[in-house]
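Why does residue order matter? Because the sequence determines the fold. Keep that principle in mind as you read this record.
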Amino acid sequence: MTDIPSNLPTTIVGSYVQPDWLIDREKFHSLAPPRVRAKTIWRIEEQFLENAQDAATLAAVHDFETAGLDIIGDGEIRRESYSNRFATMLDGVDVDNPGVVRGRSGNPLNVPRVVGPISRKESVQARDVAFLRSATDKLIKATVPGPFTLAAQVVDEHYNDQEACAMGFADAVNAEIKDMFAAGADIVQLDEPWMEAWPDKADDFAVKAVNRALDGVAGTTAIHMCFGYAFSVKNKPSGYSFLDALDAADVDIVSVEAAQPDLDLSVLECLPSKRIMLGVLDLGDMEVETPEIIADRIRAGLQVIPAERLIIAPDCGMKYMPRDVAFGKLQSMVAGTEIVRNELGIG
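Structure:
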């Protein structure tokens, strides 16, 4: 396992701002986070798209390193949403003839249909990880959608049982995670926002599905929980409906958003065996927080979680923000963290 620093390391949660030359931002903002492919958002022709995404990924890495992050991601620049790049590449999943479900906001969404046994014919993201590894000497974190959330974002016409469907996805995710570590990832993060959206179903089998996805995985792992993108979810609760059960999950780190929802941080006491990736950037506010505001949010976290168990991050993905705002927030996050490190003598 990777030795993650214990001096309040800073990182990105997942997505970063895709440049306007790469995507049609107006079209992108008009869509709910897509579950099937949304190829029309890309401005670059198909034969040039991967090279363009490589260039945009390097630009994101440059921003992260310039801002001073300790653990770097690739900004999920290649993705139309956090989940569809992986979900639409699996066997047993029909994306050309989608089904319809209700999204977290209650609006209908086109989603893949599960029409056969879920399997993965080849790695979806190993090249992404290897490219990121070649672009930085810092620790790197890669993300993949978790099995519970994947099962929530499909119409299941094969298993006819959501738990069985989640376990099918878990096996595919397990193979993917192992390939991501083999490609050079220091941390792999599962994105599982639907555990919070469907807490009753999560109680039944979410941890079981996550543990199956992590079976035999030797690297450092994280799980991200959130209430949805700030772009579309404005009023967020101050507590999680599904959190304490994650102490039994085979992950090392639990990522929570805390700034925008003004989270009651005492809820984190229910995760004594985990490191906490604490969201300290409010992505619903287009004002860049001062370093002093960030330092106050970290100090509040330290009232509940000791410094050696805290990792500092934005609340959630930043892809819906203007780049100057996102970059400014990351700079303030690093500066605010440095204030607290100096106070603690761990800079």
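The CA atoms of residues 7 and 345 lie 9 Å apart.
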